[in-house]
């Protein structure tokens, strides 16, 4: 999935505006002008569309974890994880929303996209692990849809 789609989905899910998105990104140490963020939220066929850089997406996900869970001052700040794959997005959202394995299964099942336990755990393995599996666009799209339903109630 392109990062613009993920940002758009998360913005809708959290019911936030461009200024709040910029504040969330700033929590992880990157300053972004809300007007620039507005160009990332536009659809590809709209005038003024700009592809969201991986660095901005990575900082938004890290900032979202801090925004939802608070900053842990006892740990040294981790470097931003690049490149940002669908697996990375899934992992960061799992942490930000404090989701357990059962929650992930329930979210995917709620949108008629059930995934087996081994299949799901393979998405959270490190690249290079024998059982690692890349997260497809369809799975991430369905996960975002299910998480939105869960958040909105």
Short recap of the structure:
By secondary structure, the protein is mostly helical.
Fold blueprint:
Blueprint: H1 3-14, H2 18-26, H3 34-41, H4 54-69, H5 86-96, H6 101-110, H7 117-123, H8 137-152
Main sheet: strands, sense, barrel: none
Shape: globular
Could you give the count of β-strands?
Answer: 0
Series of H and E elements: HHHHHHHH
Helix/strand-derived class?
mainly alpha
Tell me the radius of gyration.
15 Å
Task: Give structural attributes.
153 residues
Describe this structure in words.
- There is one protein chain.
- The protein is mainly alpha-helical and 153 residues long.
- The protein has 8 helices and no strands.
- It has helices at residues 3-14, 18-26, 34-41, 54-69, 86-96, 101-110, 117-123, 137-152.
- α1 runs parallel beside α8 and α2 crosses α4.
- It is globular.
- The model has no long low-confidence stretch (mean pLDDT 95).
């Amino acid at each position: 999935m392109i990062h613009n789609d993920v940002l758009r989905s998360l913005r809708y899910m959290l019911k936030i505006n461009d200024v709040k998105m910029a504040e969330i990104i700033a929590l992880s140490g990157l300053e972004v002008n809300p007007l620039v963020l507005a160009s990332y939220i536009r659809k590809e066929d709209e005038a003024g569309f700009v592809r969201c850089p991986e660095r901005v997406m990575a900082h938004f996900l890290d900032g979202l974890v801090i925004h939802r869970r608070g900053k842990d001052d006892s740990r040294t700040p981790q470097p931003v994880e690049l490149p940002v794959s669908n697996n990375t997005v899934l992992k960061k959202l799992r942490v930000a929303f404090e989701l357990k394995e059962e929650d992930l299964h329930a979210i995917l099942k709620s949108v008629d996209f059930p995934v087996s336990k081994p299949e799901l755990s393979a998405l959270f393995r490190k690249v290079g692990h024998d059982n690692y599996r890349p997260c497809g666009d369809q799975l991430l799209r369905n996960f975002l849809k299910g998480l939105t339903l869960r958040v909105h109630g």
